[in-house]
């Protein structure tokens, strides 16, 4: 049997049984954020130089990803996977019925998670930066909000990782590995 995949950019058949889904910018963004969050939540001392540098790196890659979400490749664009209420309700119904409907890009619930994490990261970067300004230096409310955002990121990131593992098992497809290679099965 002849297998082929579709080149996402040009929609041309190519050899192999995979699709190019996650481009290098999406994958780099994902893994830089993973490393940065691990560093800032569990390894680096909060408020110190390397914690701040890591926060600025996350802010930079988040900015690139937001732009790439508008002008990037097909599966990177927000318009491709924006989770409308109808899509979310439909996806929840599929899951409730035990159907293993597969999504090439983000599933509606995966899109909600991704957008929630990106929003939390953005607000965390903002509050971290504000704590360094003269106006908010030593402001306990901003510091508490920054800590709360960090905890929320940790909870959602762990839920995201667990969901990727469960969905990999349910769909019989290694979703974590696809974020390394950029490819998913046809």
From TrEMBL:
Q: Which organism is it from?
A: Phyllobacterium trifolii
GO terms for biological process, alphabetical: respiratory electron transport chain
UniProt membrane topology term: Multi-pass membrane protein
Q: Has the keyword Transmembrane been applied to this entry?
A: yes
Q: Does the keyword Glycosyltransferase apply?
A: no
**SUPFAM superfamilies in the record:** Transmembrane di-heme cytochromes
Instruction: Tell me the protein's name.
Output: Cytochrome b
Q: Where in the cell is it found?
A: Cell membrane
The entry lists its GO molecular-function terms as: electron transfer activity; heme binding
Q: Which InterPro entries match?
A: Cyt_b561_bac/Ni-Hgenase, Di-haem_cyt_TM, Hydrogenase_cytochrome
Q: Enumerate the Pfam families for this protein.
A: Ni_hydr_CYTB
Signal peptide per UniProt: none
GO CC annotations on file: plasma membrane
**Keywords from the UniProt entry:** Cell membrane, Membrane, Transmembrane, Transmembrane helix
Q: Which domain of life is it from?
A: Bacteria
- Span-the-membrane segments of this chain are 25-43, 109-130, 145-166
The Cytochrome b561 bacterial/Ni-hydrogenase domain extends over 21-182
């Amino acid at each position: 049997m002849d297998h082929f995949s579709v080149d996402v950019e040009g929609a041309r058949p190519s050899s192999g049984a995979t699709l190019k889904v996650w481009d290098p910018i999406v994958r780099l963004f994902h893994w830089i954020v993973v490393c940065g969050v691990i560093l800032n939540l569990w390894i680096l001392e909060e408020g110190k130089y390397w914690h701040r540098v890591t926060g600025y790196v996350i802010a930079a890659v988040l900015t690139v990803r937001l732009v790439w979400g508008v002008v990037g490749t097909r599966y990177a664009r927000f318009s491709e996977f924006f989770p409308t209420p109808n899509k979310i309700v439909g996806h929840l119904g599929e899951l409730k019925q035990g159907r293993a409907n597969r999504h090439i890009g983000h599933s509606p619930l995966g899109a909600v998670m991704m957008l929630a994490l990106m929003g939390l990261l953005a607000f965390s970067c903002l509050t971290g930066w504000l704590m360094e300004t003269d106006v908010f230096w030593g402001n306990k409310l901003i510091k508490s909000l920054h800590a709360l955002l960090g905890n929320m990121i940790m909870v959602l990131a762990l839920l995201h990782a667990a969901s990727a593992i469960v969905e990999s098992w349910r769909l019989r497809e290694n979703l974590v590995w696809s974020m390394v290679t950029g490819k998913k099965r046809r």
